[in-house]
Amino acid sequence: MASYRARWVLPVSRPPIENGCVHVEHGRITRIGRHEAHHGATDLGDVAVLPGFVNAHTHLELTGCTGRVPFRGSFTRWIADLAAVVQSDYQQGEEARREAIREGFRQSLAAGVTAVADIGHGAVAVEEWRRAKVHTVGFLEVLGMGPRRLTPHERCFEDAVKLVEGDARAEETARAEAHGSLESSANSSSLDPSLLSPPLTGSVLRRFGLSPHAPYSTDAALYWQVVAYAAQAGVPVCTHLAETREEIAFLSTGTGPFRELLERLGLWDGSFAPPGCSPVRYMAQLGLLALKPLLAHVNYASDDDLDLLAGHGASVVFCPRSHAFFGHEPYRYREMLARRINVCLGTDSLASNASLSILDEMRYLAAGGGLLHSQLLAMGTLAGARALGLSDEIGSLEPGKLANFAVVPLDYPATCDPTADVLLGQAPPAAF
Ligand SMILES: [Zn+2]
């Protein structure tokens, strides 16, 4: 058994505990409360101990893209620019993409992120997800639009399903053998690394699922295939949704910049019938909302859309700094939270953001005001765990849950409000 004492413990699911102590056995939390001298705890000092942060939307394959794809006012142009950068990177071979994913996991841990929902492609992504010492929900991306001879939709779907199923078998074997454990990132923080050896021999959680890319790149038949498979196999599903005004125009009338992009790429053959409704309603019609999916962005949503999301129990990932990068209209997260929609946080990829840190996202929002700090902290932890289907195991500090922590030094002129101190401070976190 191990015990850790900290100036503050922030369980998220209940109020902060001053002079708190967390007890850990076999990789799980057994007890949390006030520190007592007889606990014989390792003293972490003037820090706050929190549940590890959850990044509910990222593309770790793009970790090498920082600053390389500037936004010039048009989202479709940005997508085309990004595709060109990715294509030239991929020509350097598989190893570069592998290293990008590994580096993404390293940067995540160094930012106190202990769980990610990552979108990736092919066996390389699956192998890296399996190797990662971070809880991972890996979504294999499928897409396809227009002429089948150019985008082999079925093969894309079948390949992804094969990888998901192959992994389910591999995971069963792994579970029968032994568990890995999370790594510690104390070396990158201002904390004494010797204090932060990982307290666990507990499991690293992994779930693999499918991500039809977006309504402008994935036709209805392919969405249906994914929905039918996911419903039967019980795998998680994620999609990019309602990200831009251009997407709204494309779905309502089949026109606008996305139509032009598809035409330029030779992917418009007239077979796509615009549903004539909002992206959210379209997903309800396709049966996707019934799967309680993880929906990335949802930047443009009407009241009706929000009611639909609330009614279906979908989770929405807000990516605050990526949202600002593209200059989107104000995000409706207050209205979403008021409807009890599960709103969590993501960084998106480093092509549209400066770091893979969820604490940076929370600090960015905290600086803008308008939300309770406790609400923000829950978005970056427990809401993310719920969205990933992992809230029985992680997302808050409670007896029985896995023992992985984010530790934030309290360098801000400390007040009696540790949540504010964490969110308004600047000290880099660590994970252990
Ligand atoms: Zn994305």
CATH class: Alpha Beta
What count of structural domains?
A: 1
Determine the oligomeric state from the structure. Answer: single chain
Major β-sheet annotation: 7 strands, mixed
Proper CATH architecture: Alpha-Beta Barrel
Radius of gyration based on Cα positions: 21 Å
Ordered list of secondary-structure elements with their pairings:
Blueprint (H helix, E strand, L loop, with lengths): L1 E8 L7 E9 L2 E7 L7 E2 L3 E5 L1 E6 L16 H16 L3 H17 L2 E8 L1 H10 L3 E8 L10 H25 L28 E7 L7 H14 L4 E4 L3 H9 L3 H8 L14 H7 L8 E4 L5 H10 L2 E4 L1 H6 L7 H6 L3 E4 L12 H11 L4 H7 L2 H6 L17 E5 L8 H7 L5 E2 L1
Parallel strand pairs: 1-4, 1-5, 6-7, 7-8, 8-9, 10-11, 11-12, 12-13
Antiparallel strand pairs: 1-2, 2-3, 5-14, 14-15
Helix pairs in contact: 2-3, 3-4, 4-5
Summary tags:
binds zinc ion, 432 residues, TIM Barrel, 15 strands, 4-stranded parallel beta sheet, single chain, 7-stranded mixed beta sheet, alpha/beta
